[in-house]
Design goal:
heterotetramer; A mainly alpha (93); B mainly alpha (108); C mainly alpha (329); D mainly alpha (118); C: 329 residues; mainly alpha; Four Helix Bundle (Hemerythrin (Met), subunit A); 2 domains; D: 118 residues; Helix Hairpins
């Protein structure tokens, strides 16, 4: 039964990857990467049970806790870039 | 009783898999960034809730169930936050909702 | 069936790597590197390497993206078109790929229990760990005790890299764009005005720290240990710095403390080794640390893992502050 | 299945060379570092592939399992430390690139060489 979920998650990961490759904007890629992260959490949780080693859920927990830091870093990057562009037009890109 | 839990968990897992897949399809096919974000958030919340609830039924009362509950709680906190942060970033950089996403990258 | 999952994930890995190299937008390349790291971790997990997967997760999920983005903020987002001698490079790469693939035909098949790598030392480690070290996680036992010298070396490499960054960025930056002066206050305040990330982030920081400590001290029984815990704790402080601004984070953990952590962890590791000599054993022999050899091993492992965790946290945070402080203050 | 027995090693070879291509052909220094980290990941993959034993499980000893089969812990130890070392050394490389940008005003290989020739 876990196989159905695993396959659905893997296919969704592939779809997210296609979105990450297509873009078109950088935010689509970040969105896809973030979605990919959540799918990885689900995949790791399911596979821990598929392997019969539920004590390995720590891994999924780690991703669930810290995977969003990357997106916050993107927001901070964009925010700082906006200030730079306001301060010195034409620079920064 | 055990069989009932099994059937319930199968239903939850299958439904979760379906939600995840539909969300992924939406994230690929929707016309612009904000609608794609909407589709992706579906997989992050509904899909995750269903799948993890399904596994929890399989795990029964054990440490694993508590860990799964923690994973679910943190996922439900972090992924909408990430979506919010991403939407803020896109808006700040001048992506307007309601129009097809223009490439903000040079040379592609 | 799980082998097929692995094959699928590996194929995605190759596609991602190709896309990373092809794109000229370095920002996009960094985001795709995040996807690459997720795929790597999933593959490691499928290949039974839970500890390695946890390390990749701890490093790849937040820290490496943050570091690359800070570097991009200081250098520029785009690479120039055109490469040097593209055809020659492609030729060299194609020939070498074929050579390496040709060489793989001599390798034992995937998962073959008769492979030479499984015949030497590894069975001994698996067999003797319960009786000599008395902990379930063989990876931690090999890391901390059987191959303690190795790990000491690795800790000093991490330490040296941290010192190197601090020296590189030690020189004060003179040129500061005049126009930026007026907004420096707002620039340095992080995501303070973004309510949702701030509230949720502040809520999660204690849990991330708690999880870090769990990984640190549960490393003898499940996947985890000093390397992973150090990265997770560093991620918590980096999250704080993103939310509240870098200056505020430096008020919580000043540079002096960070330098102390970098040196202190490595020193603690070395000191445990020296203590072994003083108590009449060999360098990094923990059996003599307590009256009972197994209790001694436990104590030694606990201390050296703590040393590793402290150094890794210190180095990663020093590096982050070096980059973040370079651009905007 | 026999055909898939070497797939992991082929992926290793291809990843290795994708990383290598980025290092030798791309003039941008950050791109070179990204290529280098792909190269490193390929090596990690090679080691971890070797540790797998058919039907085995992760080398964390379980109580009450009859005749357990564990994968090889040794490659995992080597790679576990190597991952943390790789992020530290990559950070050092990024630091050097940032300093180059500050001194030369560019991180493109030929522009740096141009500046040096002057």
């Amino acid at each position: 039964m876990y196989y159905v979920v695993t396959i659905a998650t893997l296919v969704t990961m592939a779809l997210a990857l296609i979105r990450a490759l297509l873009g078109p904007s950088i935010y689509d890629r970040v969105l896809a990467a973030n979605m990919f992260g959540t799918k990885t959490v689900l995949l790791l949780a399911v596979i821990a049970f598929l392997y019969g080693r539920p004590d390995f859920l720590d891994l999924a927990l780690a991703y669930a806790l810290i995977n969003f830091i990357g997106v916050l870093a993107v927001l901070e990057f964009i925010r700082r870039r906006a200030y730079h562009q306001a301060a010195e037009p034409g620079a920064g890109s | 009783m055990a069989m009932l839990a099994d059937i319930a968990s199968w239903v939850l897992l299958t439904l979760g898999g379906a939600f995840v897949f539909i969300g992924g399809l939406g994230a690929l096919r929707m016309p612009n960034l904000y609608t794609r974000m909407h589709a992706a958030s579906l997989t992050d919340t509904m899909g995750a809730v269903l799948i993890i609830a399904g596994i929890m039924l399989q795990a029964g009362a054990s440490l694993a169930t508590i860990k799964l509950a923690a994973i679910l709680l943190f996922l439900l906190l972090t992924s909408p936050t990430a979506s919010n942060a991403l939407a803020s970033a896109a808006l700040l950089a001048g992506q307007r909702p309601g129009e097809a996403t223009a490439s903000s990258e040079r040379g592609e | 069936m799980t082998v097929l999952f692995g094959v699928f994930l590996l194929t995605l890995l190759v596609i991602t790597a190709l896309a990373i190299v092809r794109t000229q937008h370095l920002f996009a390349a960094v985001i795709l590197t995040g996807v690459f790291s997720l795929l790597m971790a999933a593959n490691f997990f499928l290949l039974d390497a839970a500890d390695v997967a946890l390390t990749e997760a701890a490093i790849g999920a937040g820290i490496s993206t943050v570091l690359f983005l800070s570097a991009l903020a200081l250098t520029g987002e785009y690479e120039r078109a055109g490469s040097t001698n593209r055809l020659l490079a492609l030729g060299v790469v194609a020939v070498t790929t074929l050579l390496v693939i040709y060489a793989t035909f001599d390798k034992p098949r995937f998962g073959d229990p008769e492979a030479p790598v499984h015949q030497h030392v590894a069975p001994w480690y698996l067999e003797r760990t319960p009786e000599l070290i008395g902990i379930p996680n063989v990876v931690t036992a090999v890391l901390g005790s059987f191959r303690g010298y190795d790990t000491l070396g690795e800790v000093f490499v991490v330490f040296t890299a941290g010192i190197g960054i601090v020296f590189l960025f030690g020189a004060r930056r003179q040129r500061k764009p005049e126009a930026l002066r007026s907004v420096i206050g707002e620039l340095g305040e992080g995501l303070r005005h973004y309510l949702v990330p701030r509230v949720v982030g502040r809520l999660l920081i204690p849990f991330i720290l708690l999880f870090g400590l769990y990984v640190q001290f549960h490393g003898e029984y499940g996947p985890g240990g000093g390397f992973q815990a150090g990265a997770i704790v560093a991620a918590a402080f980096i999250l704080y710095a993103l939310l509240e601004g870098e200056a505020q984070a430096l008020r919580v953990l000043p540079t002096r403390v960070l330098t102390g952590l970098v040196a202190g962890g490595a020193l603690l590791y070395g000191a445990v080794g020296v203590a072994g000599i003083l108590l009449g054993g060999n360098f990094l022999d923990y059996s003599v640390l307590a009256s009972d050899p197994i209790a001694g091993q436990h104590l030694g492992l606990l201390l050296i893992e703590a040393g590793v965790g402290i150094t890794v946290t210190g180095v990663l945070l020093s590096v982050f502050h070096a980059f973040a402080g370079r651009g905007h203050i | 299945m026999e055909l898939l027995g070497l797939y992991h090693y082929w992926v290793f070879a291809i990843l290795l060379m994708i990383g290598f291509y980025a290092v030798i052909a791309k003039p941008n220094l950050i791109k070179k570092l990204i290529g280098l980290s792909i190269f490193q990941s390929a090596v990690f993959l090679l080691y971890i592939t070797m540790d797998k034993v058919e039907g085995g499980t992760a080398p964390i000893i379980q109580d009450g399992v009859v005749d357990p089969l564990y994968s090889n812990p040794l490659p995992q130890v080597l790679i576990l430390t190597a991952i943390v070392v790789s992020i530290s050394t990559t950070a050092l490389g990024l630091g050097i690139v940032v300093r180059i940008k500050e001194e030369y005003g560019s991180i493109e290989e030929h522009e740096i060489q141009e500046t040096d020739r002057r």
